[in-house]
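Write out this protein's structure.
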Amino acid sequence: MKKSWVIIKYSNHPENAEENRIGKIDIWRDYNNSWGSSLYEVLDYYDGSYNQAKKYSKTIIEGE
């Protein structure tokens, strides 16, 4: 079964600064929710396994 993922990058929001997450990339399961927050930026979406999404996220980081 294919799963869907959203790839996010934490913003420079003060809450992220407290948690030392600014600029870090994370991959969350996508359940077809709407995404948006001042805490992160949505970089992309990916359909496949978590490991494939993780590899894909590295290509996004390298492209920045």
